[in-house]
Amino acid sequence: MTGAGERRPGAGDRASGRFDLTGRTAVVTGAARGLGRAFATGLAEAGADLVLVDLPDAPGLAETAAAVRAHGRRVRTYGQDLARTGELAGLADRIRAAAGPVDILVNNAGTAALERFNEITPESWSHVMRVNADAVFFLSQRLAEHMAADRVPGRIITVTSKNALVAEAGLAHYNAAKAAAQLLTETLAVELAPHGITANTLAPGMVDTPIDGEFPLEREGFEAAYRERIPLGRYARPEECVGALLLLASDAGAYLTGARIVVDGGVLADQMPRMRFMPPYRSSLPPDDGADDGAGAG
Questions:
Q1: Which residues face 171 on adjacent strands?
Q2: Is residue 71 part of a domain?
Q3: Has residue 279 been placed in a domain?
Q4: Which sequence positions are flagged as catalytic?
Q5: Is pTM beyond 0.85 here?
Q6: CATH number, domain containing residue 235
Q7: For FRET with 298, which of 22, 38, 223, 285 sits at 20 to 30 Å CA-CA?
């Protein structure tokens, strides 16, 4: 049985080698745009070959595939509606047959609808749950079986949200689905550990991606108010979430399992945004007069 920290030989001993994914194959769902494209490109840049999954005829999937090829990596694309959960075992089998053993699964695909609690229909509830929670379960289930059979010390990474940890109005079904994916992933971490397979979550905050712009909100006022709420003062760029993903996907994160990495600019660290009501920051350091005291390495 392969241990969680063991990998096939060839990874470098240098720090950068711990993030090297050369020779590994990664599946990324929701790969046509936004975070999915950034994740696929980042994995390719680290050396992985890619399998990209998104809705049939999803605009942008070809562009993501081209970005992967630009890094000299192999890529395959699959059109699949993840809400059709009964088809996901077959999808996993086709991927395994075409691409060989899968080392990394990134459950990135997601959907959301901004609806008040009392306006959510059974159809809307079911669709959000199927894509954000059910698909994570059934695709992870089948690909984890392949990883175990192939003796691959795999990495399952599920992209949740800060909404898996705190509620947000108008997103009852999304909040519930992301929270379910979080606890599901922790369960996978425990059950798959004997096979050397790790399972972790990456929880982004507000990211500058197309999905956010699709909500029926008074956009300018909402974004201004939200940026005030973020200690770093801005939305994340998709590529700023890639470093956390590479940690979880690579040898650098071999002993991380059942963990979550929150990439939210500090939102969850700040229970009350009181900074703007406090006196200005004062440094205890002496003023810098610009003089060179001559000290240095000699």
A1: 115
A2: yes
A3: no
A4: 174
A5: yes
A6: 3.40.50.720
A7: 285
